[in-house]
Write a structure and sequence with these properties.
Keywords: Membrane, Transmembrane, Transmembrane helix. The protein contains 17 helices and no strands. It is globular and about 50 Å long.
Length: about 400
């Protein structure tokens, strides 16, 4: 239904479809790629902490690296994509780098340094591809349907994240608990994602000449606009208040004394919740405002952090925590990008998205390191409550920065 009109459909046609063909194709690429990525991600925290005996502080450094250490490459990728007017090419390079990194894990073995280097390469790929991909979504969708488009894309992405840990468990069971088999299978699936990108995604090219040449000066000028500055600052504050997934799952596993064999299913539960809620919450954001939905999502994150050391226990705690954690992602991930798109000029759309994502990723790097240190110094309960307080402060600050009177449309 969707792939029959891949290209640059008219706005009226886009409104008659749940999403445009290009958005659906990008969602298919993300779905397959996330199966590959989550096969590795689901077992990595347990492998590093229990297998390699890393301390919480050391794990915080690795976890921060996983998202933030190569964050500046997001700006490079976004700027180059705008400069050469070929977002698909830059995204393809990023997807290919992440695929190759899966084979790098075979050579890393039990070396923490080598694992960190391979993770950095993988995140370099993600850094290069994320902004061009999200820019293609905004350029393939009418402004009033961006929440729905990002919701559908993130739902497809989260379906891949839902399947990834299950595939990893199946491979481990079939291969006698061999991590090498997981890495090879993950690589093969990642290659399929690159093939889908090449065959089905179309670069959105504007036939009109670019009004403002793309240059370092014009890119820097983005931050001269007050709404963009506020949005970047808000993204940094929210990133600084967000603890990595691995920490949440490790704390939950310790709290309920979950066996190692069940650990990957925590990510499956989160992804299932995300999958079910991403599209409805994206559509809701288009109707009632993107900022209220995003702030409500961060409010659920406060509940997650408090639940980790609250009165509940057992399977009820697991179900409620992963359900709320998935709701947090569904209400915030794509909604932030939908909020950003209309504020950015088309010729610098990818660069602007990259700047916002880079700020958030660098803040996330700091957050992971600080939380690991807090866990080790104060204990997990105090660290989790401090994280919850940090999210509350970030919500208040974001509401003040991005209120309608500040010039950001919800």
């Amino acid at each position: 239904m969707y792939l029959s009109t891949i290209g640059r459909p008219k706005a009226a046609d886009l409104r008659r479809l749940p999403v445009s063909a290009n958005v659906f194709a990008l969602g298919a690429v993300s779905l397959v790629t996330d199966v590959s990525a989550e096969m590795v991600t689901a077992v990595l925290p347990l492998y590093l902490v229990l297998g390699l005996q890393l301390s919480p502080a050391a794990y915080g450094v690795i976890d921060g690296t996983y998202t933030g250490a190569t964050a500046l490459l997001r700006i490079v990728g976004g700027y180059v994509a705008d400069r050469v007017r070929s977002r698909k090419t830059i995204a393809g390079i990023g997807y290919a780098l992440s695929a190759v990194a899966k084979l790098g894990l075979l050579a890393a073995g039990r070396s923490v340094g080598a694992v960190g280097l391979v993770i950095a390469v993988d995140r370099t790929g993600k850094g290069l591809r994320t902004a061009p991909r999200d820019a293609l979504i905004t350029l393939s969708t009418p402004p009033d349907a961006l929440g729905r488009a990002f919701g559908v894309h993130r739902a497809m992405d989260s379906f891949g994240a839902f399947l990834g840990p299950l595939v990893a468990l199946a491979v481990l069971a079939a291969a006698g608990q061999s991590f090498d088999a997981v890495f090879v299978t993950s690589f093969c699936i990642a290659v399929l994602g690159v093939v889908l990108l090449v065959l089905f995604v179309r670069d959105r090219r504007d036939p009109q000449p670019v009004a403002v040449p793309v240059s370092p000066r014009s890119a820097v000028s983005l931050l001269r606009a007050a709404p963009v500055r506020r949005l970047v600052l808000a993204a940094c504050l929210l990133g600084l208040a967000t603890v990595g997934d691995g920490f949440v799952y490790l704390l939950l596993q310790r709290r309920v004394e979950l066996s190692a064999g069940w650990f990957p299913l925590l990510a499956v539960g989160t992804s299932l919740s995300y999958l079910l809620l991403a599209a409805p919450l994206g559509a809701l954001a288009d109707r009632i405002g993107r900022l209220p939905v995003m702030l409500a999502g961060y409010s659920t994150l406060v509940a997650v952090y408090l639940l980790l050391f609250g009165p509940l226990d057992g399977w009820l705690l697991i179900v409620l925590t992963v359900g709320l954690y998935g709701a947090f992602y569904a209400a915030t991930d794509g909604v932030l990008m939908a909020l950003s798109g209309p504020l950015l000029p088309e010729q610098l759309r990818t660069t602007g998205i990259a700047v916002i994502q880079t700020g958030q990723a660098l803040a996330y790097l700091a957050s992971s390191v600080l939380f690991g240190i807090a866990w080790q110094a104060w204990g997990p309960a105090a660290a989790s409550r401090a994280a919850a307080a940090g999210v509350v402060l970030a919500i208040i600050a974001t509401a003040m920065l991005l209120a309608r009177r500040a010039g950001v449309e919800s």
